[in-house]
Amino acid sequence: MVKAVEGKLEVRARISGTAAARDYSNVTAPRIQGPEGNRPMVLLNLAPSGSMVKKGDLIAQIDAQSLQDHIDDVQDTVEAAEADVRKRKAELEIDWKNTQLTLSVAKADLDKARLEARAAEVRTEVERMLLQLNFEEAEARYKQLQSDLTNTKRRQEAEINILELTLERHTRHLNRHKG
Predict the structure, then answer these.
(1) Distance (Å, rounded) from C-alpha 172 to C-alpha 160?
(2) How far is CA 36 from CA 66, 106, 166, 173, 174, in A?
(3) Per-residue model confidence as pLDDT tens digits over 17-27
(4) What distance in Å separates the CA atoms of residue 123 and residue 126, rounded to the nearest whole number?
(5) What is the pLDDT of residues 31-82, one digit of tens each?
């Protein structure tokens, strides 16, 4: 037996399935790339999972101090590499001028030995032989310096190229972290 009563009628329905948000966003942390990929990232603040957030709300905050310290170190490395390139260019310019001066001196010695060898008719046989040997030595030295000139220029260009590539590598490393 059931009694009839007057009051609010409550309607309940049971349904099966899953409920999901229509508008949502996944949030992922930045991925560190490169050789420093094992650097820890300390999470300072995180919005509760499943909470409603509005545009401009802080979702997560990562301690960037270790990254900033690394960027400062790499910046110092880039500045040092730039200074190395400038310094080495200046040193090689001085070396190049000295090499050219040495070549000029060798040319002058060759010309002097050539003139002395021409005036050999009034000299003794031993003196003529010494003058001829002196001329041949000066000529050989001059030719050797001329052939070394090309190799010296190539060596210097290669050295500067290596330093500039090192600078470029450090600059890319810095820009990757800044990004």
Answers:
(1) 18
(2) 11, 54, 18, 11, 12
(3) 777 777 777 76
(4) 8
(5) 665 555 566 667 778 888 777 888 888 888 877 777 788 888 889 999 999 9
Angle between the 125-178 and 65-118 helix axes, to the nearest 10 degrees?
Answer: 170
Compute φ and ψ for 43, nearest 5 degrees: -85, 115
DSSP sequence for 63-114: E-HHHHHHHHHHHHHHHHHHHHHHHHHHHHHHHHHHHHHHHHHHHHHHHHHH
CB environment 104-128: b (16+ within 10 A), e (fewer): eebeebbeebeebbeebeeeeeeee
Residues 145 and 141: their CA atoms lie apart, in Å, by 6
pLDDT at 37: 56
**Tokens 């090689």 label which residue?**
92
User: 34's torsion region: left (phi>0), alpha (psi -120 to 50) or beta?
Assistant: left
Q: Cβ–Cβ contacts within 10 Å for residue 17, how many?
A: 5
Give the residue carrying structure tokens 């490393």.
173
